[in-house]
Fold Glucokinase-like ROK family protein.
Amino acid sequence: MRTVEPLHLRLLRVLRDEGAMSRAELGDRLQMPRPRLLAELERLVSLGYVAEAGLAASRGGRRSTLVELSPSLRFAAVDLGASSIDVEVVNARLEPVAAYAEPADIRNGPKVTLQRVNELLHKARVDGAYERLHAVGIGVPGPVSFRDGVPVSPPIMPGWDRFPVRELLTREHGCPAVVDNDVNIMAIGERHGGVAHSVDDFLFVKIGTGIGCGIYLSGDVYRGTDGCAGDIGHIQVDSHGPMCSCGNVGCLEALFSGAALAREANTSARSGTSPALAERLAAKGVVTARDVAEGAVEGDVTCIQLIRDGGRRVGGVLAGLVSFTNPSMIVIGGGLAQLGHILLAEIRSVVYRRSLPLATGNLPVVLSELGPRAGVAGAAVLASDVAFGEAS
Amino acid sequence: MRTVEPLHLRLLRVLRDEGAMSRAELGDRLQMPRPRLLAELERLVSLGYVAEAGLAASRGGRRSTLVELSPSLRFAAVDLGASSIDVEVVNARLEPVAAYAEPADIRNGPKVTLQRVNELLHKARVDGAYERLHAVGIGVPGPVSFRDGVPVSPPIMPGWDRFPVRELLTREHGCPAVVDNDVNIMAIGERHGGVAHSVDDFLFVKIGTGIGCGIYLSGDVYRGTDGCAGDIGHIQVDSHGPMCSCGNVGCLEALFSGAALAREANTSARSGTSPALAERLAAKGVVTARDVAEGAVEGDVTCIQLIRDGGRRVGGVLAGLVSFTNPSMIVIGGGLAQLGHILLAEIRSVVYRRSLPLATGNLPVVLSELGPRAGVAGAAVLASDVAFGEAS
C-alpha cells in the first residue's frame, strides 16, 4: 500500500531543486493553503533547514521576501568503485563545494576504505567546506540492504558482508547516513540532474569493470526483495561462453566488461590483428578498454569490431529487459560508455530489432549526461533526502 | 510521487477481503478514529455499498452490530483467451454466483467477441444472478493501455487495436469497466486469493498458447510505459532457433509454448520416437500439449524430455529476470502448468543454478493455486476496485 510523501519532504525538495522562491510561489508549487505553509516554514526555519533569502524582484506593489534552504546545509556524497573513491561535499542545492577523487582497492576492506573516506571528509572540513555535515550518502559496488544500511554478500568486496557502513558513518560524522548500490546512485543522479530528468521509468545500465543496472519504476528506484535487483552482469548470453568469476559460464560481463575487453584487446594486440592495439602494447606493455576506444576513433577495424561485439551482447540482454519492463528510456553509463557512439549504435540496433515494436516505438537509448559524476550526484540526492526526512 | 489510498477504498477492500465485522474491529484494522469511521460508514451505507449485517457473537456486555458490503453488489469478471471466453458474476466477497466458459476465437474480432460476452452476462441476469452490475473487469490476450481501456497493437488479436472495449462495456451495462492484459489479471487473482497472497514482489509466468509474465512490484501490478511490460515470450533464447510468429528467430515462445509443444509432439509421434504419442496420434489424428503431459505421467521418455527441454528454456529466461528484479516468488500458471512437477523441477534447477545466490536464497518457484480460474478471479478484483473507487 502506498504512502503519501510528507509535506516537509516535498517542501524541502522543491527548494533544493528549484532554489529560492517566494512563499506565494511555494504555495502554488505545493498546492497548499497559506496558513499551513507558513506554519510549516516557520517550523523548518526554527530547525535550521530554511532561511530568509532577501527580497524578490519587484513586480509592482510590495516586494515579497524569498525563502531558501539554509546556506550552511552540507551533505557528503561518496561513490566507492572497485578501484576508486570519489568524495564530494555539496551545499543545499547539491552543488559541490569540495571534491576528491583517488584510486583505491575496494578489496582492502571496509575499515581501511572507510577510514580513507573519513580522512577526505575531515580534510574538507579543515579546508572550510563545512562546519558540520547534515547527512552522508554512499554507494558501494555490490548488493546492499537499503533498509539495514549494510552490503549483503557483495561478490567483489571481501570483508564487507553485513559490515555496518551506515552505523560507522553516522557515528563518525554525527549525522544520518544512507547506503546504496553504486549503480542505483548513478541512476538517482542521472534522474535528478542528468538525461533522465523527471523520467519515471528507465533503466540505467552501467558498463564498467562489471555490468549492472539501476531500475526506476513509477518514479522510484526498485531495489528488489534482497537489494540485488539489477544484477544483469550475470545473465547468461552464451551457454558455450567463457567462465565467469561467479562460477557460471557465458555471463554477460564475462563476455563484455572492462576486464573482458582488456583481455581481448591484449590478445588482439599480441596476435597482431590490430595495429592500433599492437602499437599501444609495445609502448605501454599492457592495453586496456581505453586503448580500444582510442583505436576505434582512429578507425582500427579490430577495435571497432570488439566494441560492436560487446554492444551486440549488451543489446541482446537489454532487448529482453525492454520486453519485460517496457521502460521510457535506457541510459548507458560507466567507464565503457567512453566507447561512445559505436557502442550505442550497436545496442540500439539490437534493442530496436528484437524488442516488441510497441515497447521501442518511442524509446531513447542514450549516454549518461553526468558521466563519472553520476554516482556522487546520486549519493548527494540520497543524503539530502535522508536529512530532509529527519525534519519531521 | 506516491499517492495515499483513500479511506473509502481501504474500508471497502477490508470488508471485501475479510467479510462482515463490527465497527470496533473495522476501526482497529484501519487504525482510524471512531467519529471519522462512523461518518464514512454512514456515507457508504447511504450510497448502497455497505449494509448492517446483524449482531456479532456475544462476548459479554452489549452485542455490537456488524457491517458488511451490500449483499446486492455484483461484479462481472471476464477472461478472454486466444481460444476461450470465461465469464463470472461474483458477489461482494468475490464469490461466483454464475459462471460460463466456452471456446471462442479471439480473431473473430471485438464486436463478435464482446457481443457474446454481453449475451452471457444478460443470460446471467435472466437467470437471477444479479439485478444490476456495479462494475465489469475484463482481461484480453494482448497489450493494453490500462489508462485508456483499449488494447494496443495486440499481435494475436486482429481488429482489436485501440477498440474502445471499456467504453462499450460501460455503455452496455451502465457501470464502470476496467480492461487489463490477461496475464496481469491472472497475477492479480493469484495475489488476492491464491499462492501469492499478500506477496508484494513476484512474477506470474503464464505458459499457454503463448508465454507472458505478470509483474508485481512493491504491491502493485507493473504495466510499463505502454502497457506491454511482461512480454517475455519474445525474448530470444536461441539465435539459431526456429522462426517465431513475430518475425524474429528463436523467441522463447517459438521454442516452448502450447503451439510449439504440439508441433514437436506431432513430429515425435510421426517419427515413432515416442510410443505414447504415436498411440494417441493413431487414435485421434492429432496430438496436443495435453497428450505430452499424459505421456510424461505414463513415463514416456520423449514426453519427459520435451517438458524438460521447455523447462530449461523458460528457466533460462527466468534466471535472468530473477537477477534483474530479485522477486520474492515465482508463480507458474497457464495451460502448460498442467505439465506439473517435471516442468517445475527443471525451471527451479536452472533458476537456482544461474541466478545470483542472494536472489535465490529464499525464492519459491511454485504452481498457480487458482489454475484456470486465476484470470476471472483477478478480473473480479479489478472490477470491485474500480467500483469502490467510484464511491468517493
User: Anything to note?
Assistant: Chain B has three domains: 7-69, 75-190+373-389, 198-368. Residues 7-69 of chain B form a domain with the Arc Repressor Mutant, subunit A fold (CATH 1.10.10.10). Chain B touches chain A through 51 residues (CB under 8 Å).
